[in-house]
Amino acid sequence: MKYKRTEELFELLNMKNISYDKYLAENQDSFVCNDLKEYWAEVIEKSGMSKVDIINKADIAYTYFYSVIGGNNYPSRDTIIKIFIAMKLPLEDCQRALKLYNWAPLYPKVKRDSIVIYALNHNFNLYNLEEMLEDHNEKGFKNR
């Protein structure tokens, strides 16, 4: 099975000749994970990084990181972005995490968001992102 984009799922649900049971069986990998611990385990594994490396590269406190991935703390939008910048995962994964926590997805018409999108798409580290935000007179993560 393969992860499908939202548009693809809408198209399938609009089809008249598909049963819901078949749709469910064929698209299991595309559903949003409701278990945040399971979700974090999945993306951390996907990153191929150790938790310590992620913590250091995201510049967040050790205990806070573990409370987030353990499902005990509700992270800010910026914290989620910092973690995904650290893990060097694609924009799509960051957008999914933001949606899981009911945060607005990154929006290219917002200048600061467009810089973050660019950074995610070009594998910037947090330092490079901070520098680019400062160069363009946008608030960084340290002064929020």
Summarize the structure.
This protein has helices spanning 6-14, 20-26, 36-47, 51-58, 62-69, 77-87, 91-100, 111-121, 126-135. With 144 residues, it is mostly helical.
Description:
By secondary structure, the protein is mostly helical. It contains 9 helices and no strands. It has helices at 6-14, 20-26, 36-47, 51-58, 62-69, 77-87, 91-100, 111-121, 126-135. Helix 4 crosses helix 6 and helix 6 runs antiparallel to helix 7. The radius of gyration is 17 Å and the shape is globular. The model has no long low-confidence stretch (mean pLDDT 90).
Layout of secondary structure:
Blueprint: H1 6-14, H2 20-26, H3 36-47, H4 51-58, H5 62-69, H6 77-87, H7 91-100, H8 111-121, H9 126-135
Helix pairs in contact: 4-6, 6-7, 8-9
How far apart lie the N and C ends?
A: 40 Å
Q: What would you report as the Rg, rounded to the nearest angstrom?
A: 17 Å
Major β-sheet profile: none
Average of pLDDT = 90
Helical segment count: 9
Order of helices and strands: HHHHHHHHH
Low-confidence stretches: none
Name the shape in a single word: globular
Residues in helices, as a percent range: 55-70%
- Number of distinct beta strands: 0
Keywords:
single chain; mainly alpha; 144 residues
